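HOLO CASE FILE
Compound: SN-glycerol-1-phosphate
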Amino acid sequence: MNIYQDILEKKRKNELAIAALLDPDSKAIKEIKDTIKILESSKVDYIFVGGSTSWKNDFGDFIREVAHHSSLPVIIFPGSASQISGYADAILFLSLVSGQNPQFLIGEHIRAASILKGMDIEVIPTGYLLIDGGNMTTVEFISGTKPIPQNKPEIAWSIAYASELLGMKLIYLECGSGAKRSVNNALIKSVRNYINIPLIVGGGIRSREEIEEKHKAGADIVVVGNALEDDPEFLTR
Ligand code: 1GP
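Model generated. Tokens follow.
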């Protein structure tokens, strides 16, 4: 299955897609099998695996276990070039375009290039924009970049559209895992109006209503992490 074609097809039909984020730092490897069983019976389309750090589990062991139990597409959402594995179906090749830190704009990518060469994995170039979610998140701290204020949509859409012009295939608006506030609908709408490529929104989304709102505002894929961590069955219900 070509994941990007699948994302485009869902966008064309205006179908909401949900991605469940499994972070190797917040889940024990032995819980993966049961978690995936629940995700497969809920309305989840993709499993994202990754995070800004990887202290608790070895990334390779973690993703191998996810891929072993999952019939859903497994997509790496990498925090660095250390989070790459051929067990995944695809990788979001994230460039942190809202910041000016060369390590996350192009540096990790150079490290990743020799690992990805010859690996049978779909690579999807993604412009990653950090948006202010009301608290300091791990991604903000680790990347050392400032998030875009929620009331400055013109900054967000300029960066998003510039990323599309540079050839990015997806835009990801991110408030950071555990954000107090998710990306507001006005900002999503304004970015949506400027870009043609699919839009991912994540960070601090905790309810079904919020997921639907983000979709209505223009998100093609909504990412949920912590809320599923706290209550794995909330999407099933
Ligand atoms: C992080 O957007 C994701 O990149 C998920 O955030 O854990 O807050 O749902 P949450």
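CASE NOTES: The chain is about 40% helix and 20% strand. The mean pLDDT is 95.
CLOSED: yes
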